[in-house]
Amino acid sequence: MVHRAQPTTFQERVAIVQQATAGQSDSNIAAVLPCSVWTVRNWRRIGHRQGRAGLAPPIGRPPTGPLGALLPELRETILQLRRSHPGWRADTILAELRTDRVWAEHQLPSRARIAACFKHAKLTRRYNRHTELPEPVPAPERRPHDVWE
Fold this sequence. Notes:
Order of helices and strands: HHHHHH
Helix content: 40-55%
Number of helices: 6
Structural class: mainly alpha
Strand content: under 5%
Distance between the termini: 95 Å
Low-confidence stretches: none
Number of strands: 0
Shape: elongated
Largest sheet: none
């Protein structure tokens, strides 16, 4: 068994599937390629189930957005809560989901993931920085004690 520190390349994965289709065993493929029998077995199964497209490395975020790994119903519930209560922040919606019995046995996303979902759905407001209020211009003094009166 060979231990590698780096993952297999796309060409190695294609070679694994091609040799497995040709009838070679997993141990023979692992002896030819610098990888373990478990790696060969894993990529052979993925290639059998998904074809050549399954061998490509997944790059980037899931196409459905920041909460792509969640149930679509939970994602829609989060977005619906935000749309119906635009002042609620991510922590308020997370607290609301925790009290809901429907989502009690499901794993809930973090506050940061919910906020990222809001940003992805364009449900955030731009932050307005604090500015000092303009001071009124004092009236010119006419007599010596006008300031105190």
